Amino acid sequence: MLKKSVTLIILASCALPSLLQSQDRPEEPLVRASLFVSSSSVDGGFDMGIHFEIEPEWYLYWINPGDAGLTVDVEWELPRGWKAGPLRFPTPEKIVKGGITAYGYHRELVLLSRMTPAAGAAQEVPGVVRVKLDWLVCRESCLPGRAELEMSLDKDSLARHVVSRNQLSRYQDRFPLALPSAGIGVDAMDVAVDGSIHLLRIPLRGERAREITDFYPEPIEGFSVDFSTIRVSSDRIQMSVTPHSSSSILGSVRGIAILGTKGYYLEAQAELE
């Protein structure tokens, strides 16, 4: 019989010694992971969340870890016919230490994915969702972690894992909003090439564009970002990137624009030649 309890396995051996110094194995796990859902009904789909509790001063990484680190890796195992939507990350913190830029989360991290049940799932024998998690948690040093979680999809189990509406709203409030909701538009991105360096300029429109204080780029396939070059003014965001090879093509840049305490999702397309 499949267990309905959540199994958590933490590997506390030191990893990536080239990143930071190693340290002794902690007595208590630095990260605790668990699953939750937004609804006890499978009809029409629901959000499944992964909640990470992080020990004080330690942090996990965003989808773009920055100059060093690894993002949280999530591998779903779903019942036949079920689908998991894209994994959604909340707006991270910018963490700068010794000239190294990282993007991550202290104390708590919540990831969300929209689950779409198979046709007729409500009438079938409930299945089980399993997920394998791998992460790197850092302070002055870094340690790898791993968890294997599972949740039965029967109504009683779902009811035990439902979070309150207020709690769900608190989690969702941390996720980036659509940039147009702030009255800001984005024009085609200009790319100037100087040797091996590509200087990107993302033009902004709207009165509130002057309120943008920073930009956190998502990974750009085929390119490395120089995070120290990111600059924001009232009418543009600019930064420098370096292609990995001569075949690297820069088509678009995505990321989070920071306005006050909120993040706004931004996407800029390169100008067509």
Give a nutshell description of this structure.
With 273 residues, the protein is mainly beta. It has helices at 155-161, 165-172, and strands at residues 31-37, 46-54, 59-66, 73-77, 83-84, 93-97, 100-106, 108-116, 128-138, 142-152, 177-178, 185-186, 190-194, 197-205, 212-217, 223-232, 236-243, 252-259, 262-269.
Topology readout:
Layout: E1 31-37, E2 46-54, E3 59-66, E4 73-77, E5 83-84, E6 93-97, E7 100-106, E8 108-116, E9 128-138, E10 142-152, H1 155-161, H2 165-172, E11 177-178, E12 185-186, E13 190-194, E14 197-205, E15 212-217, E16 223-232, E17 236-243, E18 252-259, E19 262-269
Parallel strand pairs: 11-19
Antiparallel strand pairs: 1-2, 2-8, 3-7, 4-9, 5-8, 6-7, 9-10, 12-14, 13-14, 14-17, 15-18, 16-17, 18-19
Keywords:
273 residues, mainly beta, Immunoglobulin-like, 2 domains, five-stranded antiparallel sheet, four-stranded antiparallel sheet, 2 helices, 48% strand
